[in-house]
Structure formats: structure tokens, C-alpha cells
Write a structure and sequence with these properties.
Layout lengths: L1 E2 L5 E2 L6 H28 L5 H5 L3 E4 L8 E6 L2 E7 L2 H9 L22 E5 L10 E2 L5 E5 L4 E4 L4 E3 L11 E5 L2 E4 L1
Antiparallel strand pairs: 1-2, 3-12, 4-5, 5-6, 7-8, 8-9, 9-10, 11-12
């Protein structure tokens, strides 16, 4: 039997137990480091790209939209409608607050207080994501030509296969002429 530095004895041909433990720990650590090096690129690619982060919120100058007109801008990869409604459109939307609606909401719940003329909506039909056009529907609002959903001037679903109203995103008015969406 051979003596070891710690005073323990080992049989000839057997490795020192503390040395074996060190080799196992070193091999496990090297394997974990190698696995982390392989996994990191896959995890890192899940972070949003810089151009997506820039679209997380967008500021828009409302002076570009005359009364009765609509501008479509891109926000988070989707169309966003910014519409300057006429007094007639607002009156029609308020009149229909008591109508039987598939997704009930009043007109006042769909715009900011004191800013009834400004309608800000995600321009994707809630049925299958098509882009509705303004003025073609039975209710004076948006019409989705793909499957026939009709929205009123407040973006509420009135007829057709869409289950929900057009989405009102989070937005705030920074001034009388500027809105921040997102």
C-alpha cells in the first residue's frame, strides 16, 4: 500500500479519491460552460431588435390630419388609424351607444375626454387581421372587404364575423397637436 499526502492509503493502480473528485467537477464545469456557450445565441436572438424597440411607442403630429380625414401609420408592425372625426360622425357614434352591439362600449369609452374628434385605432380587423377601409360599411365607419365586417364611426363592430371592436391602443395627448401612442 502506498501512502498519500493526507495519510490515507490507496491500493496500487487506484487513483487518489480527491484527484478523481477534482476531475469529475472540472469535467462537469467544462460541460456546463460549453452548454451555456451553445445556448446563449439562441436566447439572445429572442430579444427584440433595435428597430422594433423604436416602434414600441410613436409620437404623431395631429396637424397633418384635417377634419373628416384619416392617416394610417405603422406601429408595432400593424397599421394604426388616426382619424379626425366630424361632428356628424361623433353624433352618429353617440346616438348608437344604446344600440345592440356584439362588443358593447360607449363612444366615450373609446376616446380621451375632451378629444371626441380624435379616434385612434389599431387598423386590423378583429376577425382575421385584415385592414378595413373607411367609408364602405353600412354604419359610416370602417368595412373589412375580406369577410364583410362592418364597424361604426367609433370602431365598434356592428355586423359581420368580427367578434370584437377595433382595438384602441394606449395613447396620450402630449399637447393639443401631438399624441403619443404606446
Amino acid at each position: 500500500m502506498a501512502d498519500t499526502a493526507a495519510g490515507a492509503t490507496t491500493e496500487p493502480g487506484q487513483a487518489d479519491p480527491s484527484r478523481r473528485d477534482f476531475i469529475h467537477i472540472a469535467a462537469i464545469a467544462a460541460g456546463a460552460g460549453g452548454a451555456a456557450a451553445l445556448v446563449w445565441p439562441f436566447v439572445d436572438q429572442m430579444n427584440p431588435s433595435a428597430d422594433t424597440l423604436a416602434l414600441a411607442s410613436v409620437e404623431f403630429d395631429l396637424t397633418k390630419v384635417a377634419e373628416g380625414q384619416q392617416v394610417t401609420i405603422k406601429w408595432r408592425g400593424k397599421p394604426l388609424f388616426v382619424r379626425n372625426r366630424t361632428q356628424k360622425e361623433i353624433a352618429e357614434a353617440v346616438k348608437d351607444d344604446t344600440a345592440s352591439l356584439p362588443d358593447p362600449q360607449t363612444d366615450a369609452e373609446r376616446h380621451k375626454d375632451g378629444k371626441a374628434q380624435w379616434m385612434v385605432l389599431v387598423g386590423s380587423c378583429t376577425h382575421l387581421g385584415c385592414v378595413p377601409t373607411f367609408g364602405g360599411g353600412d354604419y359610416g365607419g370602417w368595412f373589412c372587404p375580406c369577410h364583410g365586417s362592418h364597424y361604426d364611426t367609433s370602431g365598434r363592430i356592428r355586423k359581420g364575423p368580427a367578434p370584437k371592436n377595433l382595438v384602441v391602443p394606449e395613447y396620450e395627448f402630449l399637447s393639443d397637436t401631438k399624441v403619443k401612442i404606446g
